[in-house]
Amino acid sequence: MKYNYKPTGVCASNMEFDIENNIIKNMRTIGGCPGNSLGIRSLCIGNDIDYIIDKLKGIKCGFRNTSCPDQISKALEQYKKEGK
After folding, report:
1. Model confidence, pTM
2. Could you write out the three-class secondary structure of 24-81?
3. Helix or strand or coil: residue 14?
4. Fewer CB in a 10 Å sphere around the end CB: N or C, the chain?
5. β-sheet bridge partners, residue 26
6. Percent of the chain beyond pLDDT 90?
7. Phi and psi dihedrals of 26, rounded to 5?
């Protein structure tokens, strides 16, 4: 299932996920740091969303209260909340 999320408080402007049976099959971050986005994408693909939430939740970027990894965890939590 395709899922789009608009992150807040970070450089990325959109996050797109392809999720099947709670496994991330593909993801794409629009904006933000290209290298970090590709690295995070590589680590997320093939993993269960609960595992990714646990690993990325609460990570901060510099002085910000959030980060792209934290926003990924928020996106996946929202996905679960919406019962996708």
Report:
1. 0.94
2. EEEEEEECCCHHHHHHHHHHHCCCEHHHHHHHHCCCCCCCCCCCHHHHHHHHHHHHHH
3. strand
4. N
5. 18
6. 96
7. -165, 155
Name the average pLDDT for the chain.
96
Distances (CA, A) of 1 to 23, 27, 37, 73: 10, 11, 21, 17
Say if residue 84's pLDDT is above 90: no
- What topology is assigned to 2-81 in CATH? Enolase-like; domain 1 (3.30.390)
Mean pLDDT, residues 50-69: 96
- Residue-wise over 38-75: b if at least 16 C-beta within 10 A, else e? eebbeebeeeebeebbeebeeeebeeeebbbbbbbbbb
